[in-house]
Amino acid sequence: MESEGLRLAQAEILELRETIANIRHEAEQTAADRQHTIQQIVAMREVLEQAHADKQAGLQQVMADAGDEIGQLKATVHAMREEMEQIQFEKQRAIQQAMADSSDEVAQLKATIRGLRDEMEATTIRHREEIQGMKAAVRDEQQQLHETIAALREELEKRNGR
What we know:
Helix content: over 70%
Largest sheet: none
Mean pLDDT: 92
Strand content: under 5%
């Protein structure tokens, strides 16, 4: 029976060795699977980090492009505002110049009107004086003619005996 106990013990030892080999094989397989899983996780993390870095770079590029565009738009707005202010200034200057020119023209026209009015009044006065002079000359001539007629009548009457 001892030999049977020995055989049983040897069989049990063999079974235990197989179990240990199986467990060792499973442990090695699990370690290899674990190592493979870790490698996959590391690779996925690298992909995620690269995607995040690409996303950040893209976002930074978008922000830089937007900043550039905003700067260009601000510069355009500033330039247009300056141009509009210059146009407003030129327009105001033109209006003021037109008003000054108009005022000068009005003053010149008023002076011309005054001059023409004065000339017309002087001409009217001169004509009145000439008419009065002519009337006086006509009256004087009529008076002389009446006197001449009267003198001639008197002389005729003297000659005719009256």
